[in-house]
């Protein structure tokens, strides 16, 4: 933490303390606010999409469907691939794979990672592809822990599929929802590898998130002291978000 109160360049053996200057600079840094906005935009979108999709898959694959175990494996497999490898795979898919494939059908497409308006959404799509597997397994485990007698009783009472899900299944899945929302959101807020190996924060700063901004500031621009200050600020933000999220969902569990 003491490095954040210096103008250390990451190389010099001695520190020159500058007080709170780095923190004052951070508040006035428009690039910081832009990176923070991209980080939360990415994290919130990813959290919503991953949880909605993984819950839908869990409900589908928990049913007695032919080949459901094989499908569980297929949907889980991307989660065991390293993020760096996923970045390289999808970087190729976006730049050559999809354009070449669709080109044979007469459809002209370009990589979203090269478009400032689409790049962040392209990264979210990759993260969704890789991130659905683990939450899906947690939801399936939660579904299998719900007594079958409750669903049977609801059916006898005339409750439809939606009412049974809304009043029985979803409330009993509340702990699983809390775990998945917390894991996905905190993981998404700390995203670095995927952005770094695909766009490095570009194009035109459109995918710069907090982790890549801190890295670039500390090591590419040799402003390690300022980078440390940014790290401390981001750490506080993560702690506050985590506390707020746990409190919110724990209260929601009680209400359900």
From TrEMBL:
<keyword id="KW-0812">Transmembrane</keyword>
<feature type="transmembrane region" description="Helical">
    <location>
        <begin position="226"/>
        <end position="249"/>
    </location>
</feature>
<feature type="transmembrane region" description="Helical">
    <location>
        <begin position="172"/>
        <end position="192"/>
    </location>
</feature>
<feature type="transmembrane region" description="Helical">
    <location>
        <begin position="119"/>
        <end position="141"/>
    </location>
</feature>
<comment type="similarity">
    <text>Belongs to the binding-protein-dependent transport system permease family.</text>
</comment>
<dbReference type="GO" id="GO:0055085">
    <property type="term" value="P:transmembrane transport"/>
</dbReference>
<dbReference type="Pfam" id="PF00528">
    <property type="entry name" value="BPD_transp_1"/>
</dbReference>
<keyword id="KW-1133">Transmembrane helix</keyword>
<dbReference type="GO" id="GO:0005886">
    <property type="term" value="C:plasma membrane"/>
</dbReference>
<keyword id="KW-0813">Transport</keyword>
<feature type="domain" description="ABC transmembrane type-1">
    <location>
        <begin position="36"/>
        <end position="245"/>
    </location>
</feature>
<feature type="transmembrane region" description="Helical">
    <location>
        <begin position="42"/>
        <end position="61"/>
    </location>
</feature>
<dbReference type="InterPro" id="IPR051393">
    <property type="entry name" value="ABC_transporter_permease"/>
</dbReference>
<protein>
    <submittedName>
        <fullName>Sugar ABC transporter permease</fullName>
    </submittedName>
</protein>
<dbReference type="InterPro" id="IPR000515">
    <property type="entry name" value="MetI-like"/>
</dbReference>
<keyword id="KW-0472">Membrane</keyword>
<keyword id="KW-1003">Cell membrane</keyword>
<feature type="transmembrane region" description="Helical">
    <location>
        <begin position="73"/>
        <end position="92"/>
    </location>
</feature>
<dbReference type="InterPro" id="IPR035906">
    <property type="entry name" value="MetI-like_sf"/>
</dbReference>
């Amino acid at each position: 933490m003491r490095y954040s109160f210096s103008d250390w360049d990451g190389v010099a053996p001695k520190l020159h303390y500058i007080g709170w200057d780095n923190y004052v600079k951070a508040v006035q840094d428009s690039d910081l606010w832009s990176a923070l906005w991209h980080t939360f935009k990415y994290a919130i979108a990813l959290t919503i999409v991953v949880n909605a999709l993984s819950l839908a898959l869990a409900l589908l694959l928990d049913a007695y469907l032919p080949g459901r175990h094989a499908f569980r494996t297929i949907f889980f497999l991307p989660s065991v691939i390293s993020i760096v490898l996923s970045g390289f795979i999808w970087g190729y898919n976006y730049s050559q794979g999809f354009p070449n494939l669709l080109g044979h059908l007469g459809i002209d497409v370009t990589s979203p990672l090269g478009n400032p308006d689409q790049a962040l959404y392209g990264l979210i799509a990759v993260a969704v592809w890789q991130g659905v597997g683990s939450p899906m397994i947690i939801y399936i485990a939660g579904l299998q822990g719900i007594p079958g007698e409750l669903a049977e009783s609801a059916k006898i009472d005339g409750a439809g599929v939606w009412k049974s899900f809304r009043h029985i299944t979803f409330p009993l899945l509340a702990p699983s929802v809390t775990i998945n929302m917390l894991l996905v959101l905190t993981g998404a807020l700390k995203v670095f590898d995927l952005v770094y190996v695909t766009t490095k924060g570009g194009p035109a700063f459109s995918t710069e998130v907090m982790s890549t901004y801190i890295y670039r500031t500390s090591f590419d621009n040799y402003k390690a002291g300022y980078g440390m200050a940014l790290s401390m600020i981001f750490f506080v933000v993560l702690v506050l978000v985590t506390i707020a999220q746990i409190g919110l969902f724990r209260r929601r569990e009680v209400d359900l």
